[in-house]
Design the sequence.
């Protein structure tokens, strides 16, 4: 995607390991993080603070998320109706891998 004629100014990866690989791949293509492309991870494990640049991350309350999922699954297994459920909104933890978008 970074080799496209009009590459994105930011990438969000599904997990921290993929984000670390994404930073390395961007560097291999001559992109600087975050000057050329911002990178955001989705987990916020300790890995985000073990690499340079430190990775910005989306973090959710995993305990509350799991509790909500377990409650709803138990209700379904007990014959209850499927419901729309609100889960906690993830929060962005800004670190060194994000910055203003480059001019396009």
Sequence:
């Amino acid at each position: 995607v970074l080799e496209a004629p009009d590459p994105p100014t930011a990438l969000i990866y599904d997990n921290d390991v993929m984000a670390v690989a994404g930073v390395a791949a961007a560097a291999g293509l001559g992109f600087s993080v975050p000057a050329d492309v911002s990178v955001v991870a989705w987990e916020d494990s300790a890995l985000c603070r073990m690499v340079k640049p430190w990775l910005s991350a989306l973090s959710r309350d995993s305990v509350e998320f799991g509790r909500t999922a377990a409650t709803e699954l138990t209700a379904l297994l007990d014959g209850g109706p499927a419901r729309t459920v609100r889960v906690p909104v993830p929060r962005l933890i800004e670190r060194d891998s994000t910055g203003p978008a480059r001019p396009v």
In short: Residues 15 and 85 are 24 Å apart (CA to CA). The helical segments are 16-28, 62-77. The longest strand covers residues 38-42.
